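Before relying on records like the one below, remember that each one covers exactly one chain. Contacts with other chains, cofactors or solvent are not represented anywhere in the record.
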Amino acid sequence: MTGVTMTGNSLHMLRSILPRWRNNSTFLYRTLVNDAAALQLKPSRGRKPKAIITSTTSAEHAIPKDILEHFQTAEGMDASVLKHFPSSILRKSSLNTERFYIANRATAERIADIIAHDLPPDRPLLEINPGPGLLTKELLKRNITNLRLYETESAFEARLRSSFQLPHDALQIGDFNGLWRLSYLDGQDNGRRVLKLLAGIPQRKWPDEVAFRLFSIVGTIKFLRYLMNSITHQSEFYLLGRYEMFLAMSPLLYAQIAATKDGGYKLYRGCTVVFQVYFEHELLGKIPRKHLLPWYTAGSTKKVRTLHQKLIEDGAEEWCLVKIVPRQNLHEHLLPDNFGLFASFVTQHYISRRNRIIPSLEHWIPHCGARLILNANYTRKRTTKKGTAPAVCLPSQLPKSMPLSSNDYPTNMNIYTEFGELTPMQALTLFNEFINWSEFHQSPFMQAVESQKHKQRLMRTLDEDDPVEEATEPVKKRSDS
C-alpha cells in the first residue's frame, strides 16, 4: 500500500497470523470484538471515559445519586415516593424552576394541618401541583370536600385520578404558577387561556369575605408579580376577589417581599413597596428544603460576604411557609382608579434607591419641593434614641406585615432625602399627596403614563395585524448617495 511502511518484525507477525485467519473464521470474529471493546475502554485525548452501566434497574438510573441516597438513609424519608416522579423532574437543576412538589409524608401532614385549619366547608381549597398526591391524601383525611387540583405535569394525572375519588372537574391540567406566561400570550393573540384556567373558581367583591384558599410552592417572584399586575390593571385574578394564599418559598424570595427600607438595594426594591401596600403577609414556619423536589444547587462554595448571598445559601436548608392575603381596606387608602398611577409612581422613582425625592418630584411639578419642606407633617424630629441604628432584618425577624396606612409621613424631609429611605406606607402617603396637587393632572407625569399605555396598546395592535402584505413588498435597497 502506498504511504505505509512495515518493519521486518511486523511482516513476520502478519505472515504467522494469516494462516490462522484462513483456517478458523471464529478467531477473526473474536479478535475484532476484543479489539473494539479495548478501543471503547481506552480514553481518548481530551475526552472523559464513558461510564460503564452496571446491572441495576432503569428506574434507579433515572434518579440522581444524591437524591436516592438521601431518601434511603435520612431519617423520616421514604425512597418509595421517588418512583412516582418522572425523571425529567428529578433531574432539574435550574435556579429558575417554578414547579416544586412535596416528597415527604410528615411534611405533607404538617402543611395539611396548617392550611386546613379554620377552613369553612363552603370555601374552595386550591392545591397547585399536587404531584404524587401526598398533600392531597392528608387534606382528604381532614374532610376537605371542596378541593380543586391544578397540575402542570400530565404524567401525574393518571395517578391522581386513580388514587382519589374526585369529581372529574376537580382536577385540571394547567400551569397555574405560570399564569403570568398565559396572560402574556393572551395579550398577544386575544386568547382566553387565563379565563379558562380560572373557570369554576367562585368570585366575590373585594371588601367581602375571602373567596377561596390556595396552596402552592413558588420558586421565583414571577407569580407574585402577576398577582400585583392583576390588581394594578384590575383584571383576571383581581376579578375573583380576595383570597388566602399559603405559599412555600425560598428565604431569598421571602426577604424580597418582606424587606424593610434597611434591607439593602438588592432586597428592598419597587416591587417590594407595591407588594406590601397590596398584601398582608405572615411567616408561619419553615419547611426542610430537601423534602421538596426537584433539588438544585443554590450556589458555589465561595465565602459568603453579603446578605444576598447568605439568603441564597440558606435556601438549600429550609424554605419559608408564608400566608399572603390582599388587604381588605386597600380601597380606603388607595382608590382603584389610582392603582396604575401608584405602580408607575413607584416603578419610575425606585429605579434607583438613591433618587432624591424633591428633585425627582420637581421634574414633574416645578417648585413643589417647598410644599414638602414647609409641611409640618414632614419636619417633625425623629424620636429614636442616640447610638441606635436600624439593623438589617433576616426573614426570621420579619414575621408579619405592617398595617396599611396613608397617613405615615417621613420625618426630616429635605432636598437630600432619598426614595430608599421611605417605608412602603410613607411612599403611599407621599403618592396621595402628590396626586392631590392642583398641577398634577397637567403635569408631564400624566403624559408619561399615558404615553406608556399608548405604546403598549400600539405594540399589541401591531402583533395582531397580518404581516403577509408587508412581507410580499419588494425590499428597497438604500442608495449610496
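The first helix runs from residue 8 to 23.
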